[in-house]
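Support reply, case 0932

Customer input (verbatim):
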Amino acid sequence: MSRRLLGVALAATLAAGLTGCGSGDSSGSGNTLEIWIRQPPDSDSAKTAKKLADAFTKASGVPTKVVALFDDFETKLNQQAAQRRLPDIVINDTAQLGNMVSQGWIQPVDKAGLAGADQLAETAWKAAMGSDGKYYAAPFSAQSFALIVRKDWREKVGLEPPTTWDDLTKLAVAFTERDPDGNGEKDTSGFVAPAGTKRGYASWYASSLIYANGGDFVTATGNGKYAATVNDPKTVEAVQYLQDQFCKTKTVNPGAVSNDTTVTHEVFEKGQGGIYLVGPYVLARFVNSIGSDKIEVLPVPKGPSGGPGTLGEGENVYMMAGSENPEGQKKFAEFAISPEGQRIGMNKDANGAIVRLPVNTTVDMSAERQDPRWKVFQESYEHAVYAPPVPNWAPIRQTSADAMNAVWADCSADVKTAMDELNTKLTQELQSQNAS
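Our regenerated output:
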């Protein structure tokens, strides 16, 4: 039996047997909601999540317990599911929706019955939709991607903000070759990149350039079905552009092919590279650690064959199956998407935002955040591309990451051949999910 069909067969059984961590009555007033969020414990983001939960408790009377976890988040959810002790609420990546649906961990959400649902951006709602056209979460946060650049370095090497990929290469070469930090040593790189395979980071990083060039991983063919298109010339061109940075111009920080975002954030902060293609969630951190006057946010340039485009993603509020407090789950989701909940999650200009770009259209971001650099991300969101609602995006991202990481790590590898091979694997994956 295929993994997809097996998941469907087991979903009802799993959901019926799962028990949420809350206990007591189901009125939502005295039953503690356990809320998991994928953030490092004791981080500023975890503290913001606690503020959100405390404000919800004050407004609703429903007690809460926030659990912040970062490493192996999905593995620990699997362990809780095996013990039939899933949390009541999970705030997690939009790209995890298909996996959680196939596991039977979450159930459809009645969009029409969710107070405030009509205030949310339709683009964000698309990221809460499963491959069957049903909604399985409440949108909570959105983000696009842009370039965070060392402005002081750019001005020192005398180059203008890049508007083409050739410009971007020239800036990266200058950062690598022309001692932009002025220490008399050749110890800086152009790009810093989380190009490792953990959690699919290599394909996650490449996505924005692929979309900026008009490429894609898979393409909808109608009736909820998809075809692998990762060997399309536009996608190949983007992956080749990155291989050239690793292998020809040598403008990527050493060790990037083994790094995740946690390490890459630190590489950028230490001044080891000057161009970081990333989401807005680290902007406040870099303002504090590097200096506001030293960094700027620039849009991802259109590729030579397409664009504009950038990866679009964010977080959803998932109401987990088996909870003993479904009314409390619904109340929390409604609070999280409300203007008050969104503002708390945004955390103004301070570090620790868990709402990057608000999904509630009644919230004026410029009134909450004074840093104009956020506007670049907001404008980029207008042409953001979310992962498609295939039953399970996680193995597609991971398989793509393995292939892309391999061609960046091996300069003798032929990108077109590798993408042809990857296309075959993605076709097989779509078939296994009954999505081809």
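We compared this against your earlier run and they match. Two observations from our side: Confidence is low (pLDDT under 50) at residues 1-17, 22-29. The two ends are 16 Å apart (CA to CA). Please reopen the case if you see a mismatch on your end.
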